[in-house]
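Researcher: Let's run the pair from yesterday's discussion. Sequence first, then tokens, for each.
Model: Starting with the first of the pair.
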Amino acid sequence: MRPLLFALCTLLSTAYAAGPAPVFKAGAATSNITPELGSSINGGFQDGKAVYIHDELNARCLALDDGKTKLVMVVADSCVIGRGIFDEAKKMVHEATGLPLENMLMSATHSHSCGTAQAVGQSEPNPMYQRFLARRIADGVQRALNNLAPAKIAWGSVDVPQHVYNRRWKMKPGGIPPTPHGVTTDQVKTNPGVNNPNLLEPAGPTDPQVSFISVQSAEGKPIALYANYSLHYVGGVGPGHISADYYGVFANRVGELLGADRQDPPFVGIMSNGTSGDINNVDFRGGQAKEGPYGRIKIVANDVAQAVAGACKTLKYQDWVPLGVAQKEVTLGLRIPTQEEVEKARAVTKQSKLFPRMETMEQVYARETVLLADFPKEVSAPLQVLKIGELRVSAIPAEVFVEIGLGMKKRHPQTFTVSLANAYHGYLPTPEQHQLGGYETWRARSACLEVDASTKIVTGLEELFKKLK
């Protein structure tokens, strides 16, 4: 009897030491970040002003908890958001909850009809809106954490190829005009115009895949869906309109299709921007019908939501998966103009009859040259990879070219990349695309990273992937 008693005591002791099985939890929330009327709207070469709120802007937040590690994913309706705002929001959350700063992935959608959060083009942010934005993002995260409840999770992908087009085109001889900097060696033209007779072929591929994460309550009620699509934005809003673009319409539509649009707490649909630095929604061969304001937005959002909702029916949800995160900083060089270039540019800016506002593209880029003269020679860029079971989510603080995302997916089948994440450092072409020239390579505050920046970033991300194995 003594050996049997000893074995029983050992079993009970082991079970007691192990404790109860960990419970996977998820929570989601939105936080309104709509700016006031009269606010600056960025995304163009000229500043815009908000005169009408078509639909409210939000920071959409998803929190995950495996019992040991909590992760938060936030997507804010904004064209671009600088690191200072994201860092301030993360600091507020950390001070209130203890959640580590590196456990939060925050990104912007890149809608061109939102309030200006960072100086870009000829738009300047209101410091009051920047503080408001950081506070409201932090509030959304805390609300999502407060909503954590037992949940199950799944992820998948579905192709929606009909809405993504590479916007960089190789042209017939003579089809590419000089750049605003006077360069005549560009081999591609960005947004060349529909049915342009000089079109040859796109200068790069597209990524038709919509990747997504779906979380449900333990009883199977949808909690949130976080999606990722490599589409720059759609546009076609009214003049002076504030709108979340197709990102906001998708968020609402996918909830309707999942039967989760009237819940308590509310279901949260989320669409993040994938690797879309050279991708938009314009068929330059002329295959699209003309739509009125918001018409194309609704078509794209509905098609993507329909595809995702259908794919959700095939998913197998897991009651628990391990979570993890790895993050590092990489140093990237900037393409800073010479003193001679700055002096020439300053003379060009003074030709504007509306100085200090610039009128022509040459003047706009001359102003960018003058402003870049005060930039540092190097910047530190945050890279991040989240681990969600076998899935990996990369975060890059730039407008990432599609080739980079496709390469990541080829090396890591269960992954997707979030652009405009945790900071903003402008366009991120590959070195090969840099050699072709085009708008995304023209030196400006939104396009000033060194030619090999993408190589350094991919190398850094691969190091993070290894850490999370």
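Model: Moving on to the second of the pair.
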Amino acid sequence: MWPEPITLTGRHVTLTPLAPEHAGDLRDACVDGPLQTLWYTMIPAPDEVAAEIDRRLALQAAGSMLPFAVLTPDGRAVGMTTYMNIDPANRRVEIGSTWYAASVQRSPLNTEAKRLLLAHAFDELNCIAVEFRTHRMNTQSRRAIERLGAQLDGILRAHMIMANGTIRDTACYSITSSEWPAVRANIDWLMQKPRG
């Protein structure tokens, strides 16, 4: 299996292999804020969390996803993230299917989670590129991706049909291995600068 399950730990967040025992915390997290009202993304309702964990673990078994539970320093699961669209032959992964409880959004947690995932991808897995994809209308996600230093590759127009029946245009971003040193320096600076 590439990549293999691993726990990644920072000061503000731990990313640990997603497991059924995270369901209770994640049910609480998905009702922390009006997450289900976001029409342009897919966040499970409380009664869908166990099925979403099972879905992600099945994709892991098939080799196309490596899902993580996102934990606060006290060990509480407050969201999910993944390596997805895994392409071992071309040493590429996408970081995606990410959501967080509203109470931890705009905190150091997301920036550090992305730093941990990118460092593992480039420094340990020797990836040549890491992708990010989001709905063209998801301006919060697009700003966060661009803030990291990812470059917009383009928009896949009418890319997919959402669960609510709307058509998603997908904004595709990437960071290449040659860009990683500058992106890493940028993320480290973002983590150290005072928040105001």
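Researcher: Give me one sentence on the second I can quote.
Model: The longest strand covers residues 77-87.
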